[in-house]
Each structure stands twice: as C-alpha cells, then as structure tokens.
Design a protein that fits this description.
By secondary structure, the protein is mostly helical. It has one domain. Helix content is about 65%, strand content about 10%. It has 5 helices and 2 strands; from the N terminus they run H-E-H-H-E-H-H.
C-alpha cells in the first residue's frame, strides 16, 4: 500500500483515475475501505476484462440471458 501511495503522490497517472485489479475478495474489501482516503478505485480482474471485452452493459445482458434459461446451458 505504501508503494501505491508513493506512486500517487509522485504524479503517476496525473489526471487519470488509478484502478487496482485483484482476484482476492479480502483485498478488494480492504482496498474499497480506503478508497475515500486514497482516491484509488479497485475491482476484480474478471469484471474489468468482461467490461473491456464485452462492453459496459455486459452484466445486465448476462443476467438477462441467464433469466431466459441460459444458465441451464452453462451448468450442463
């Protein structure tokens, strides 16, 4: 966390939002706890990949397909 703060203070990413990607639920929870103090956003790696590969509306589209019977195809 100290390295992240040092990079933020040094001007790394001037004018750009800084986002940390993780696959660890505990890490995401801890990072979210300090988001207000650090100004750093965090998210799961797979969520960011889905957003970039499938578009910004990937989640509602996925839920819609699953509700229309698509989840059985995934489970089988």
């Amino acid at each position: 966390m100290a390295e992240i703060e040092a990079r933020r203070r040094s001007g790394a990413g001037d004018g750009e939002a800084v986002k940390i990607l993780t696959s660890c639920p505990s890490c995401l929870q801890g990072l979210a706890r300090f988001a207000g103090d650090t100004g750093i956003d965090s998210d799961y790696i797979v969520v960011e990949m889905a957003r970039r590969l499938l578009g910004p509306d990937w989640l509602p589209e996925f839920v819609g397909k699953a509700n229309r019977g698509g989840i059985e195809r995934v489970l089988l």
